[in-house]
Amino acid sequence: MLEHKVFGGTKIENFGGIKMKNTKIRLRNYIIVALVVLLPILFIFYSPVVMAWGIINGIITASVFVFGAWFILSLFMGRSVSCGYTCPYGALQEILNRYIMKKKPKSERADKIRYFIFVLFLLMVTYFVLKSGGLRGINLFASSSQLVILISAFIITIGLFSIVFGSRAFCRYLCPQGVFLTIGTKIGRKIKIPSLHLKSVQDNCSDCKLCDKSCPMGLNVSYMVSNGTMENLNCILCGECIDKCPKEAINYSFIKD
């Protein structure tokens, strides 16, 4: 049993059983700001637009390898590996709405649209790979004026979409990557790999709703706690609900009961 490990600024007190101490998640706040500041550089390494552009041109870009690494890590860390801590596009949406607009997503039902987008994305990838006769090479840092324009349009679209429809609206309703990582998370749980997830203590909950207000994905966290199940495909395991809960009713865990 290991003790006092740190995940995103939150202390893990029992890396087995697992009791997490509710401490400030300041580190994540610094991370999401840094991701947005570094976005002009980070899009070279990761962007679904760059990956799609490369596939259309028969090229494997760095984004393909990043996607692959995130998928493997999602077996153990769920959507936190990308959506919660390392995606600059999610960070941009969160800053726009958490600190500026303070606007939650309008609906929890429309998120099924992203599965349709995911299927379209897979069909597009398959079509262009077959059309080009397969991927012909690797160009990790592909760049062109056309690509810069596409990326700029993508970032502006994400920002506007989030402003209109609420915090992380693109993540909730359109992002195919979210589905990709959700699949990885479900596979990890299915084959019983110890993986990061939220765990609740119902008796500690005072129903103050602070967890609902803090969730950047707009989830009804208090309802999840009262029902004794913290499973939600839209949860990005950011830990904001853990940070805001005054009664330590929510914690991280690595082991399923």
Q: Can you tag this structure with a few keywords?
A:
two-stranded parallel ribbon; 257 residues; globular; 12 helices; mainly alpha
Task: Characterize the structure shown.
This protein is mainly alpha-helical. The chain has one domain. The chain has helices at 26-37, 39-45, 48-56, 62-77, 88-101, 113-131, 145-165, 169-173, 176-190, 210-214, 221-226, 240-244, and strands at residues 5-7, 10-12, 59-60, 137-138, 197-200, 250-253. A two-stranded antiparallel ribbon has the order 1-2. Strands 3-4 form a two-stranded parallel ribbon. It has a two-stranded antiparallel sheet with strand order 5-6. A hairpin with a 2-residue loop joins strand 1 and strand 2 (10-12). The radius of gyration is 19 Å and the shape is globular. It starts with a strand and ends with a strand. The model is unreliable at 1-24 (pLDDT under 50).
Strand order of the largest sheet: 1-2
User: Domains counted in the coordinates: how many?
Assistant: 1
Largest sheet: 2 strands, antiparallel
- Taken in chain order, the helices and strands follow as EEHHHEHHHEHHHEHHHE
